[in-house]
Amino acid sequence: MTPRDDSDDSRWSDLERPPLNGAALRRALVRDGGLWSDVEVVARTGSTNTDLVALAADGKAEEGAVLVAEEQNAGRGRLDRQWTAPARSGLFFSVLLKPSEVPVARWGWLPLLAGVATATALSRTAGVDTALKWPNDLLVTVGGEERKTGGILAERAGSDGVVVGIGLNVTLREDELPVPTAASLALAGASVTDRDPLLRAVLRSLEQWYADWRAADGDPSACGLQETYAAGCSTLGRTVRAELPGGESLEGEAVAVDGDGRLVLATVEGVQQPVGAGDIVHLRPAGEA
After folding, report:
1. CATH topology of domain 236-282
2. pTM score
3. What's the mean pLDDT in 58-67?
4. Given this structure, which CATH class describes domain 22-231?
5. How far apart are CA 148 and CA 182, in angstroms?
6. For 63-116, how does the pLDDT look when each residue is reduced to its tens digit (9 = 90+)?
7. Average model confidence (pLDDT) across the chain
8. What is the pLDDT of residues 160-214, one digit of tens each?
9. Which of 136, 142, 146, 163 is nearest to 81 (CA)?
10. CB neighbours of 180 closer than 8 A, spacing ≥ 6?
11. Which regions of the chain carry the CATH code 3.30.930.10?
């Protein structure tokens, strides 16, 4: 993956939000024997996931390629939901992973792994307690209320790869939030909002969790991933409603995340029913419209 020119005078239009330095990030993160093979920073793009999937398809990106955008104008969440934020107000990046030795049936753990890695890094680096909402949201507490500060999107890239995208609101102010239920690390009282150390911390955490998961052949229990995810998952212990395609829904208490990464609901009928991320349209608290 060949870095493009990421220079742009407009990057300095908000001095509270300085640009990332792609060369410095490459020096810090790309090393012999490490996961990260390249780090590219671009001023703006539609979607880092879309771009990296295309680069992988054309053979122009190796495993460990990292693509970071200062601004996305067509960022996507799960089910193609739109993700927008002001330039340089957050971290918007995608990574290419090729876990060839792991059974494909276990690749569904990658977005959950990315959530654990990100939450772990933010706790250590910024002092922010980040909860995981199954299957792909990152939550922080602002004013006693849980609000979304980030999300994760995993997409297949050819037959042997997965692109994992992470979007994280870092310095958004209250008047910049796209919806009242959104938040940012700054609003949650983060001790660090400099995006450079935050990105380095998240990528290093992701590298370690990914290495442990691969070494365990993708077994989420053997590498501690399943236990750690459950410990940080705010969905567990709550009564929720899973809205399914076709207008159907399933309601119950979220009691576990199983070995396949599915959320297990205990229904009023006494049945424990697993639901996969690909099977639901929305997951809401029971009783919420």
Report:
1. SH3 type barrels. (2.30.30)
2. 0.92
3. 97
4. alpha beta
5. 5
6. 999 999 999 986 555 445 566 789 999 999 999 999 999 999 999 999 999 999
7. 92
8. 999 999 999 999 999 999 999 999 999 999 999 999 999 999 999 999 999 999 9
9. 136
10. none
11. 22-231
Q: How far apart are CA 150 and CA 108, in angstroms?
A: 19
Report the b/e string of 198-218 with b at 16+ CB within 10 A: bbbbbbbbbbebbeebbebeb
Give the residue carrying structure tokens 């999107």. 153
CATH 2.30.30.100 domain residues, the chain: 236-282
Q: Residue with structure tokens 């077994």?
A: 219
The 3-state secondary structure of the chain, one letter per residue: CCCCCCCCHHHHHCCCCCCCCHHHHHHHHCCCCCCCCEEEEECCECCHHHHHHHHHHCCCCCCCEEEEECCECCEECHHHCEECCCCCCEEEEEEEECCCCCCHHHHHHHHHHHHHHHHHHHHHHHCCCCEEECCCEEEEEECCEEEEEEEEEEEEECCCEEEEEEEEECCCCHHHCCCCCECCCCCCCCCCCCHHHHHHHHHHHHHHHHHHHHHCCCCCCCCCHHHHHHHHECCCCCEEEEECHHHCEEEEEEEEECCCCCEEEECCCCCEEEECHHHCCEEEECCCC
pLDDT digits (tens, 9 = 90+) for 12-50: 456 689 999 999 999 999 999 999 999 999 999 999 999
CB 256 within 8 A of CB 236: yes
